[in-house]
Amino acid sequence: MVFLTNILKYNSTAGHSLKQYLRNGFKDSLRIYVKAGAGGNGYPKFGGVGGQGGNVIAVGREHITLEDICKLHKSRRFIAKNGTHSTHNFILGPPGEHLRFDVPLGVTIYTDEGKKLGEINKEDDTVIIAKGGPGGHPKNGFHGIKGQTYSVKLELKLIADVGLVGFPNAGKSTLLKAISHAKPKIASYPFTTIRPNIGIITYGDYRQISVADLPGLIEGAHANKGMGHEFLRHVERTQLLLIMADINGFQLGVQYAHRTCLDTVVLLNKELELYNPDLLNKPKLMVVNKMDTVPDRKHFYEIREQILNLPDLLQNYPEEIRPETPFVFDDIVAISAKESADDVNLLKNKIRHLLDVYGEVKKERELQEKAELVSNIKRNLAERGPLVV
Ligand SMILES: Nc1nc2c(ncn2[C@@H]2O[C@H](COP(=O)(O)OP(=O)(O)OP(=O)(O)O)[C@@H](O)[C@H]2O)c(=O)[nH]1
Ligand SMILES: [Mg+2]
Q1: Residue 376 within any structural domain of the chain
Q2: Which of 14, 148, 281, 296 is the most buried (most CB within 10 A)?
Q3: pLDDT tens digits, 262-291
Q4: 375 CA distance to ligand 2 centroid (A)?
């Protein structure tokens, strides 16, 4: 079964059982119908203006799922109230009530035509999905205008601490199985994983770190080759990218070129950059897998050297696959996900260490930014001089 969830949120929610939540499966997109209210008619005799139609507004809320949206609203149709007509008692017609509904954090809202209407990333973030029509007034002949109507898609980006990215067959799901209790499908053919899987690493002191295993990416993924590209949205919110490569490289089939381990790293670099260059700023751990298939570690040391010299070696690649910003890794490790529990344990500890270090850096940076903000406000106030009433 495929599980995908807003893990961090549920880890910290006392009221929800994470296991139960995971067992119920997961939805990562939802289509709904929204209709904003029409404006009320004006009142020509007295120059009365009709009330503005209500908007349909999405509001960010922690601890809810996409499924909850329709359950709470009891429908897939979200319709705001019309503005009231102007009358001789109410020359200015009262506006129609907005329809607000809660959505999980990490949601992006698109129209059917693919136009992005907005994103919800924090508690209380709002997006006006459909705007109410203006009320009738002299310039529109006192006729209230209809509100916007859309069929929209809400797409949820997964929140996990770590995102596993790699070519097909690199061993991502094998690693997920080895570090968590997840039971992803594992097979020797490419594209075994067709939807993201989540696993939770639990450490001896009960610290938990969530890991998302994504479908494999191949070159040209950005142009819809393979299936992994659309799932990259799920790593946008992870804190650490774990880039995984098979030490032997990859070959999609006999009619395709063989890609060496370094080639796959370069191609992943390019695909991530094409998807969203910001992904390259995330902390990154390079994992070279299937060490049990090579006679000694010499091969790994060579590959590590190449990866460290990536900026220079990129000159050897054709321009169309050469990323502008080469990967810079926090660490490069060699493992056998399938055969070595020691390797897997070492990797688990590295993941924790990196997340801790970056967590501290992030905290310090936020404090620094806050302090700078306060001192800027103080300086501005001082420059303005005392308040004269
Ligand atoms: N020898 C060896 N085989 C491995 C290792 N890790 C994974 N494999 C094998 O490689 C194949 C692919 O493993 P998966 O874990 O399904 O690979 P994946 O990266 O999840 O592949 P996709 O889901 O297609 O993207 C399977 O036959 C695994 O048994 C390893 O460390 N050593
Ligand atoms: Mg897999």
Answers
A1: no
A2: 148
A3: 999 999 999 999 999 999 999 999 999 999
A4: 50
For residue 234, the CA-to-ligand 2 centroid distance in Å is 15
Q: Are residues 60 and 133 in the same domain?
A: yes
For residue 370, being part of any structural domain is answered with no
- Quick one: which atom of ligand 1 is closest to the CA of 335? 31
Q: Is 248 in the pocket of ligand 1 (CB under 6 A)?
A: no
pLDDT by residue (tens digit) across 122-162? 889 999 999 999 999 999 999 999 999 999 999 988 778 99
In total, the chain counts a number of residues equal to 389
> Which pTM value belongs to this model?
0.73
Q: Residues 320, 192: one domain?
A: yes
pLDDT score of 245: 98
Q: Which comes out higher in pLDDT, residue 223 or 34?
A: 34
Q: Provide the residue range defining the domain that includes 306.
A: 162-362
Provide the number of structural domains found in the chain: 2
In a domain, 291, yes or no: yes
Ligand 1 in reach of 169 Cβ (< 6 A): yes
For residue 272, which of 165, 173, 359, 119 has the smallest C-alpha distance? 165
- ipTM, two decimals, is 0.99
197 lines ligand 1 (CB under 6 A): no
pLDDT of residue 389: 60
Given a cut of 90, whether residue 12 has pLDDT beyond it is no
218 plus 327 within the same structural domain:
yes
What number does the ligand 1 atom closest to the CA of 216 have? 25
